[in-house]
Specification:
The chain is of the alpha+beta class. It folds into two domains: 7-146, 2-Layer Sandwich (D-amino Acid Aminotransferase, Chain A, domain 1), CATH 3.30.470; 154-310, Alpha-Beta Barrel (D-amino Acid Aminotransferase, Chain A, domain 2), CATH 3.20.10. 30% of the residues lie in helices and 25% in strands. It is built from nine helices and 16 strands. The protein has helices spanning 7-12, 15-24, 54-58, 76-89, 98-112, 154-159, 187-198, 241-252, 297-310, and strands at residues 34-37, 40-43, 61-63, 66-69, 72-73, 117-125, 139-146, 161-165, 203-207, 213-216, 220-225, 228-232, 257-260, 272-277, 281-288, 291-292. Strands 8, 9, 10, 11, 12, 13, 14, 15 and 16 form a nine-stranded mixed β-sheet that branches. Strands 1, 2, 3, 4, 5, 6 and 7 form a seven-stranded antiparallel β-sheet that branches. The N and C termini lie far apart (45 Å). 38% of the residues are buried.
């Protein structure tokens, strides 16, 4: 494989990150390793489902995104409990206990030999029945792990990423099961993310069905004004575990955090902005469409605090 990289690209990517970047170019169905499926480990390339799997056709699938830091999965049990809650909302019964899934996640990263990694547990309706009705399907569960550094390069994060307004909005709670981390709810996120990348942005900011600021395509969002942190009320999108952690970190530092409805025009009144998620971790934002922000001490300190916390170097 020949990489055509500019001089600037070489400067901003470490050798370690470049190796991980090359790994992301390898198709996810053609890798070495093991995936936990329904209670057993199978070789990575053999971890397959049938084309007539219900979850593929009708979105009957829930998942989690977790990170392993220095050999420990951050907030493992809260993630597993949310997986079960998401499955319950979609009327899927996971045929394992929370403790068994926790143990399987730990066993997966151990079998892969990872100390730092991303973990993806997923539960989905199988091929036992095809059609909108799914009463006879089984719930299948799989867990995969791979090496994946922070979603954005550290130097890019410190400067702040650029977002654009998303072409789609988050649905109302009576339009979709918005409390579930369900695969089908991410279709509009994918389309919005693609639109942003085509336009030269890193991501998109989505509004909710009422016109309030909601979140980015895969991360929660925060703003700063006069030393006070504001974040949208999570009443039609996920109250992310990273979001909750960052709120706790901010309050432990003495900052006031207000959960409130935010109108798009209010963005002009904020000085800082950042997003949070298991993949994005804490990432400052420099621009959302016509609105500009400067990653400041508050955003950068929370980014550093979160990095220390997940690696066990800081306690809440």
């Amino acid at each position: 494989m020949r990489a055509n990289l500019s001089k600037d690209y070489h400067c901003t990517f470490s050798i370690e990150r470049f190796g991980t970047f090359l790994m992301t170019l390898i198709p996810f169905d053609d890798r070495d390793g093991w995936i936990w499926m329904n209670g057993d480990f199978v070789p990575w390339r053999d971890a397959k489902v049938h084309v007539l799997t219900h979850g593929l056709h009708y979105g009957s699938c829930v998942f989690e995104g977790e990170r392993l830091y220095n050999g420990e999965i951050f907030k493992l049990t809260p993630h597993t409990k949310r997986l079960f809650r998401s499955a319950e909302i979609l009327e899927m019964e996971i045929p394992f206990t929370v403790e068994e899934i926790d143990a399987a996640c730990k066993a997966t990263v151990a079998k892969m030999g990872f100390e730092n990694a991303y973990i993806r547990p997923v539960a989905f309706r199988g091929p036992e029945q095809m059609g909108v009705a799914a009463q006879q399907t089984r719930t299948h569960v799989a867990i995969a792990a791979w090496e994946w550094p922070s979603y954005f390069d550290p130097e890019v994060k410190r400067k702040g990423i650029r977002l654009m307004p998303a072409p789609y909005i988050r649905p109302a709670p009576n339009m979709a099961p918005t409390e579930a981390k369900a695969a089908g709810l991410y279709m509009i996120c994918t389309l919005s993310k693609h639109a942003a990348e085509r336009a030269g942005y890193a991501d998109a900011m989505m509004l909710d069905y009422r016109g309030y600021v909601a979140e980015a395509t895969g991360a929660n969002i925060f703003f700063v004004r006069d030393g006070v942190i504001y974040t949208p009320t999570p009443d039609c999108f996920l109250n992310g575990l990273t979001r909750q952690t960052v709120i706790d970190l901010a309050r432990s530092r003495g900052f006031t955090v207000e959960e409130t409805h935010i109108r798009p025009e209010e963005l002009a009144t904020f000085s800082e902005c950042f997003i949070t998620g298991s993949a994005a971790e804490v990432t400052p934002v420099s621009e959302i469409g016509a609105y500009h922000f400067t990653p400041g001490n508050l955003s950068l300190s929370l980014m550093e605090d979160y990095s220390l916390l997940v690696r066990g170097e800081l306690k809440l």
